[in-house]
């Protein structure tokens, strides 16, 4: 199996859909949701791929290729869209995104100090511009994430609290360092469920989420409800024996499939397809490829 100390599976954080309403209202990013959707896709590729690997090799690079869609199938040649580089300890050190023309769209670099990771980009003269700071506890769980604007001022902040190693609360702050909303988590280990209550800055409950975990503690299903009770959306995950996601299906309250995401795994690569229209129309296809440091 191949591992990296850098990976935090998306299965271990709240589903993105649960907070989408608030993200739109407050123009904020949810936890580790990166700059582009594609970044999130590649991050999920890596999380899935490593679930089935061992600790004999360390991830060196992760490269994403995006393919155009013609007649509901991907074209034969893709475009390089993103590459992530890691050191021999499995820590992310550089992330590069590319335009459709192949030129560099942006580059991010990562520095590590004790229990902190700092993300920055560079000006032409080499000056570092801080983009994000993350603080972790001794168990490697994130305690705080701070995002900065290009002028160095606070953009938003998230604080996470745990109890006996289990996430119990997330608090979101705006650029004025004022609380915009809070997510409280109520896990039931016996039933393998987690109830999430999301309240606004006035303490009023707005959304309720219900998570179901499988026997390995991985996300199996998610349902989002209005505070008044009606179902808003549901997500169901299908996994292989290694725990990797095979199919992720997002449905509306009436059962209509809004989004179907399919993952296929080959040696050192993951193929990701996105379908709409009840899972019949292919709208995105991305391949993520991995390379590794040699065994030590």
Question: What keyword list fits this structure?
Answer:
globular, 18-stranded antiparallel beta barrel, Porin, mainly beta
Mean pLDDT: 84
The radius of gyration computed from the alpha-carbon positions, rounded to a whole number of angstroms, is 19 Å
Low-confidence stretches: 1-43, 49-54
- Overall outline: globular
Q: Please describe the biggest sheet, giving its number of strands, its sense, and whether it closes into a barrel.
A: 18 strands, antiparallel, barrel
What is the number of independent domains? 1
Structural category is mainly beta
Describe the structure.
The N terminus is likely disordered. It contains two helices and 21 strands. It has 296 residues and is mainly beta. The chain is 7% helix and 56% strand. A hairpin with a 4-residue loop joins strand 20 and strand 21. It has an 18-stranded antiparallel beta barrel. Strands 3-4 form a two-stranded antiparallel ribbon. It has one domain: Porin (Beta Barrel), CATH 2.40.160. The relative contact order is 0.16.
Topology of helices and strands:
Layout: E1 2-3, H1 20-26, H2 37-51, E2 57-67, E3 69-70, E4 73-74, E5 79-86, E6 92-98, E7 104-113, E8 116-122, E9 128-136, E10 142-148, E11 154-163, E12 166-173, E13 179-188, E14 193-200, E15 205-213, E16 219-226, E17 231-239, E18 245-252, E19 257-266, E20 269-276, E21 281-292
Parallel strand pairs: 1-2
Antiparallel strand pairs: 2-5, 2-21, 3-4, 5-6, 6-7, 7-8, 8-9, 9-10, 10-11, 11-12, 12-13, 13-14, 14-15, 15-16, 16-17, 17-18, 18-19, 19-20, 20-21
